[in-house]
């Protein structure tokens, strides 16, 4: 399945992927050495299969009180070894909790990337809150499937609002398998280029991610 997902990603024109397995603090998670071993095995397999897409290691970290300790102890991974952290919350989480989490991460020297921000009810019902987090120094990520409308029209309207104000810094596939949740970036990138400009599309689909991987983003 992993190889098929990589083949599809390469066909989409995706040149590099930060792999982001879920990490939930205070839960049973795969040990860091187990994740690294699986990562190296996948790299060997994709090279043997002739897949040129480059792989980098990260986590999608579900925020909890011990998240910062997990990052410090390298139980959870930042994005491609950078100071950026892909952080996820419950879609119905209170705004005060999300804001405090962002503040704590920033204070510790991490750069929060809020995963699929269009899902968080407290931000989308009062979008000034998304603006406040952006101004604090958080970076906002949305799913490609939300841009194309596959997650429903309400979600798409939220994303269009964010894109229209250029609050989106990254677009993710949020893919989980090779059937229903597959990497579909090309369609989303073409839509953003048409509606919001080639420059902005290039920024959020390619340039920001490239800068992050090179350690020049944050």
């Amino acid at each position: 399945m992993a190889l098929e997902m990589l083949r599809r990603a390469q066909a989409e024109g995706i040149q590099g992927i930060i792999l982001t397995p879920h990490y939930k603090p205070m839960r049973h998670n795969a040990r860091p050495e187990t994740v690294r071993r699986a990562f190296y095995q996948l790299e060997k397999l994709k090279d043997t299969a002739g897949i040129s897409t480059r792989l980098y290691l990260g986590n999608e970290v579900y925020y909890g009180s011990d998240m910062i300790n997990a990052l410090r102890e390298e139980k959870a991974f930042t994005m491609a070894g950078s100071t950026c952290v892909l952080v996820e919350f419950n879609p119905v989480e209170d705004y005060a909790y999300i804001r405090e989490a962002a503040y704590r991460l920033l204070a510790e020297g991490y750069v929060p990337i809020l995963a699929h921000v269009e899902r968080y009810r407290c931000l989308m019902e009062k979008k000034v809150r998304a603006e406040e987090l952006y101004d604090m120094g958080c970076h906002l990520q949305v799913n490609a499937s939300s841009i194309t409308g596959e997650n429903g029209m309400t979600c798409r309207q939220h994303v269009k609002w964010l894109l229209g104000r250029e609050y989106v810094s990254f677009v993710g596939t949020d893919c989980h398998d090779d059937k229903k949740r597959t990497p579909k970036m090309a369609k989303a990138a073409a839509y953003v280029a048409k509606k919001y400009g080639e420059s902005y599309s290039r920024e959020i689909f390619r340039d920001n991610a490239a800068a992050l991987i090179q350690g020049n983003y944050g």
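The first strand starts at residue 16 and ends at 19. Strands lie at 16-19, 22-23, 54-57, 60-62, 84-88, 111-114, 139-143, 168-172.
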